[in-house]
Design a protein that fits this description.
14 strands; globular; 4 helices; mainly beta
Length: 221
């Protein structure tokens, strides 16, 4: 689900050195529920509870030194190891949440409630059209074909984690939202327009070691 946001609302929440990426002059906030599976540092085998879990992330799109990527405002996951590791290793704003992803006849139902403050999300969604691969220049390609994420270390150093995957197979989707506190919890006001919604059956993803993007930056934004 992608919502339009006033550019300045996101720009003021980004550190120096991180430029907000726009599509046709507009900023976007993405809310993405999904299932992770087969998560492991290879060649080690999958581990119960660590390797498969639901997750829900809230992100926007940015550019650093000409390289487009993703900036996360929150990541909720039903896995303590992932939450602890994501915070410690990648300095990402992870939260532990009780979550359930259920397969329905024609789609999925996703439920999430954060343990620390009861921030919740509950929705049903289903694909509504044939699968396609996004064409360069379209919104779908701009929003999904990104191959790194950025974060800020504890000592104010900008970091990048590169990822690799094939193009996302996409479908238009229909979403029925029963509760959604995730965006409100950040204080980011989104437009009242109906969000753009897409579904994907998923891809295999490989991530790499984090690396520094340069000098320490000023966080007084």
């Amino acid at each position: 689900m992608h919502y339009t946001v006033a550019n300045q609302e996101l720009e003021k929440r980004l550190p120096a050195g991180v430029e907000l990426d726009l599509y046709e002059g507009t900023a976007w906030l993405g809310l993405v529920p999904f299932m992770m599976s087969g998560v492991m540092r290879r060649p080690f085998p999958d581990m119960p509870y660590f390797s498969a879990f639901p997750e829900l992330n809230l992100r926007t799109y940015v550019v650093v030194d000409g390289k487009p990527g993703v900036w996360f405002f929150s990541l909720d996951a039903h896995s303590y190891p992932i939450v602890i590791g994501g915070r410690a290793l990648y300095n990402l704003p992870y939260h532990y949440a009780q979550q359930k992803l259920s397969k329905l006849t024609d789609g999925h139902e996703f439920q999430s409630q954060r343990k620390s403050d009861s921030v919740s999300f509950h929705a049903r969604y289903r694909p509504t059209a044939k699968e396609f691969f996004a064409i360069p220049g379209t919104f779908e390609h701009w929003a999904t074909e990104r191959y790194c994420l950025y974060s800020m270390s504890g000592d104010r150093e900008l970091q990048r984690v590169d990822v690799h995957h094939v193009a996302w197979p996409l479908q238009s989707a229909e979403v029925e939202i029963f509760s959604n506190d995730i965006i409100d919890a950040t204080g980011i006001p989104v437009s009242s327009d109906i969000p753009r919604c897409h579904y994907s059956r998923g891809v295999h993803v490989v991530s790499y070691e984090k690396q520094s993007c340069g000098e320490k930056v000023d966080m007084s934004v």
